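Let's practice the habit of predicting before peeking. Look at the sequence and jot down your guess about where helices and strands might fall. Then scroll down.
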Amino acid sequence: MSGFSTARQKMVDGQVRTSDVTDSRILDAMLGTPREAFVPAAQQPLAYLDLDLEVGGAAAAKRYLLKSALTAKLLQAAELKSSDNVLVVGAASGYVAAIAAKIAARVTATESDSALASQAAKTLAGLGLANITVRNAASADGEPDSAPYDVIVLNGATEIPPERLFGQLAEGGRLVGVFATVKPSRAMVVTHAHGDLGHRTLFDASAPLLPGLERRAEFVF
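Done guessing? Here is the structure:
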């Protein structure tokens, strides 16, 4: 096995499986996806470490490749089906979209940083993942043109209820992500059924905030 292949196996065995991820489709997708392809060349030796790895963006809008265990646990909670239409919000370099695309029928990935969106599209095309469309769009906006979605994945945390995204969920749809609307922040799944939204806490979790989903500063007099 190559160095990256060995690191990929160790990541799945030591970080993902040990985090109670049992969905074999997610495990296989992670084993078959070169995580190092989604980070800048200088960062490739760090691609399989258990950390949120910066992959682009500037200043307050920096973008990250989330920890592999968190990615896997969120996707497992989403209960992906082979027929699903999926939206990945804040896709960054495209890794989460790549994993989802190996399970679901169709994936739309949005990224607010135009340069990163362009690079993600190039990387995903290079891997032969033809069922992914990458859009340069604000995190809070989603992508209404391809809605409704069976699954929406937040590739980062939100400090506000993402109302526009809720409105793009199909009947029976699931939105998963890290909600920093409370402390400690928590991974949650939001379901849409019969016109109502249901919220269920999954586990305590932290993730870098998605640009555009931050809590607005309040004026103090």
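How did you do? The CA atoms of residues 121 and 169 lie 24 Å apart.
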